[in-house]
Amino acid sequence: MLCPLCGHRKRRRDCPALARTICPVCCGTKRLVEIPCPSDCGYLTSAREHPAAVVRRQQARDVTRVLPTIRHLTERQHQLFFLFHALIARHRPQGFARVVDSDVAQAAAVLAATFETASRGVIYEHTAQSPVANAIIGEIRTMLAQMREQGAKVYDGEVTIVLRAIEEGARATVLPGEGEAVYVELMGRLLQVQRQAEQAPASAKPAGALIIP
């Protein structure tokens, strides 16, 4: 039987969150990102206490590949960057489609272009060719509206900078010959690391931090 999440690897691990059996790769890459793992999950506990050497090496490679596209971002922009990617990771396209790197690049580029056009005093809604990209754009807009309603000061200029960084990452991070969702999967792994770090004891939130809904 094939894994119900990826559809092409064998089921091997019983997932208590999904009440289904999934493959080890999906368990490792989607843990706490797409899968709401309970705190008593054995696989989650084991990964936290004894991360495999191969996992540590993969994390180092992921950071090395994405760092050039985000090294210029401020702390607030880093928060937006990972917030947008968390939304992208949760997005489920209709039918049998899935989110691939080109969808992410299109969504980020089109929405950034809309904000850039508005900054010049021209109101024009750019649209993407990909239906998946347009759906992601709508979700990002909704998220930004909710954040502002809750009192967060999120400026169009900093959103544009973050979106251009995401576009660059989705277009430039992938090497020739790799798959069509390499960047999406890479960011999924980094989100998992971030989520684990957030659950560990931490100091107070720095001044100027965003209000995350």
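^ that was protein a. below is b, sequence first then the tokens
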Amino acid sequence: MAEGFAESYRSAGHVLEDPHCLAYEVARGWRSRRFVVRIEWDSVERHEQGFRASSRLGEFFSAVRPFYAGIDEMKHYAVQDRGQPG
């Protein structure tokens, strides 16, 4: 099921090619089958009133729907600091 999850996001990634989606990442735990998905938008409003209101949401959701029930948390966060080591 973990490989199916990763593949669903790979196949749905093109849907996130939106001017307001700055980046997204899918990370898998080193010793677990748990994932963290982080999607960075330029604003909450553009995400909720732009992407979520568009037809692309349906395409994205249909790709990840089988895994939706396993989501532990879906929240908006604001980046406070972005560092680069070195």
